[in-house]
Amino acid sequence: MDGKLHNEIISYSKSKEPQESCGFVVLVGGEKIFIPCENASEDKENHFEISPEDYIAASEKGEVLVLVHSHPQGEPKLSQADLQTQLYCQLDFWLVCDEQIHIFPKIPFLIGREFKHGEMDCYTLFRDFYHLSGCNLPDFERDDYWWEDGFNLYLDNMAKHGFEQVKEPQIGDVILINIGADVPNHAAIYVGNQMVLHHAPKRLSKRDLYDGYWFKHTHSIWRYNAWSTLDFTVALNSLDLNLG
Questions:
Q1: Considering the domain 122-241 in this protein, what is its CATH number?
Q2: Where is each NlpC/P60 domain found (predicted)?
């Protein structure tokens, strides 16, 4: 973002403290402009809410690109309520905290994604599910068919990023699966009731029964070592936005 836009957003947010500020970044005539909105929440110091009328007014001026709000009293990360709002509205979020703007790209719906290795694949789904649950995992370059070139990307990274192997799955656990390979090259998330969420090659991301092929070819089950600190509510509720 350019300096003018950055300064406008920071200045407006400071003017609204201790309340949370909010607004949109809109593309108008090829230029990104900030449009402040009234915080319609009843608890303005801890939450924000934008009226439908303000959204319509912003969208009539141009293409709405970003939803902006601030955390004057909080941390530079999205709350569970923020994550749910972002998932529903499908916009990038810019969060103002400590006079800095933290950028959170939009996350596509977890179900119904088209597969593209390295960009929208089983690891992307795994990573996004955990982001919605309060854990940010790194992205990394991965060529297609890496498992045929002597790499073992899942096993090399699970323990390194806080996962430990367990015997029986519980909600949120990661199930590593071998699909025609000697090393695990596919990840699924256990979502309860013998169901997993996953994104197989050449298919849309979906929920599947954890039985048959997936159970037979399971390599191992992994649990985040700070599992009790995670909140899977937004991620699990989002699965009903697009039944699959």
A1: 3.90.1720.10
A2: 89-225
